[in-house]
Design a protein that fits this description.
Mean pLDDT: 79
Order of helices and strands: HEHHHHEEEEHEEHEHE
Low-confidence stretches: 1-16, 221-226
Oligomer: single chain
Shape: elongated
Strand content: 5-15%
CATH architecture: 3-Layer(aba) Sandwich
Number of strands: 9
Strand order of the largest sheet: 2-3-4-6-8
Largest sheet: 5 strands, mixed
CATH class: Alpha Beta
Distance between the termini: 36 Å
Structural class: alpha/beta
């Protein structure tokens, strides 16, 4: 019964979604261009109505006016989201993005703190670093806005993480009755480990993927207070 409840909850737990860093720049440029066109059209329509009066406006002018009003709503929502993401980007970060060689210079505790803050907390998740001793193979507990949890194990490795580590992590996930588990490492993850994790609520983040996520922009979530 416990196994079934854990699997069921994985459908509601949303893993971190990430956007390429340059996407925010392109989205901002598109919004600027669209907003400029919208303002020009709105100004032209306003001038037409001012000189001719609303009663003298033709069908085309009235249709364009209605279209301007309707299109203004998604533009406003788009700017709301972009401004929130710019605020998040410009906010001083506890941990700047780091490369794998830089991460290998950290202590194990510092690496766990980096993963907790740089990868998960930036997504709006609440994070708790577990004690370094007797943590049951779990280094971080991640909680979403609905109270669902995931467990994270961090491996500051130069080598390759094998299948046995993933099996142990899965057992820890079941013990904590978490919705999902993550393995985050500076090293590589073996093909056998990846095959074993297939079909299970386990996210695998190797060194190259960790660098990508560290540089990426976190996608905003519904219910996030960020």
């Amino acid at each position: 019964m416990a196994h079934h409840s854990v699997v069921w909850r994985t459908y509601d737990f949303r893993p971190p979604r990430w956007l390429p860093r340059q996407r925010l720049n392109s989205q901002t440029l598109v919004l600027v261009l669209l907003s400029g066109g919208w303002l020009l059209l709105y100004a032209w329509l306003g001038a037409q109505l001012w000189h001719g009066g609303v009663l003298a406006a033709g069908r085309l002018e009235l249709m364009l006016t209605a279209a301007c009003i309707v299109l203004g709503i998604p533009l406003a929502l788009g700017w709301w989201g972009v401004v929130r993401r710019w605020r998040m980007r410009l906010r001083p970060a506890v941990w700047p993005a780091m490369t794998v060689p830089q991460l290998l210079e950290l202590t194990p505790s510092e690496f766990e703190e980096y993963v907790a803050q740089r990868i998960f907390a930036r997504q709006g998740y609440a994070v708790i670093n577990t004690p370094d001793v007797q943590d049951g193979g779990v280094d971080i507990i991640v909680t979403d806005v609905h109270g669902r949890q995931a467990v994270v194990q961090c491996k500051r490795y130069r080598g390759t993480v094998g299948e046995a580590t993933i099996r142990d992590l899965y057992g820890a996930m079941m013990h904590f009755e978490a919705a999902m588990a993550y393995l985050v490492t500076t090293g590589n993850i073996s093909d056998a480990a990846r095959r074993w994790a297939q079909g299970k609520p386990i996210g695998l983040i190797d060194g190259s993927r960790l660098e990508e996520l560290s540089r990426a922009e976190p996608a905003l979530r519904a219910g996030s207070t960020t």
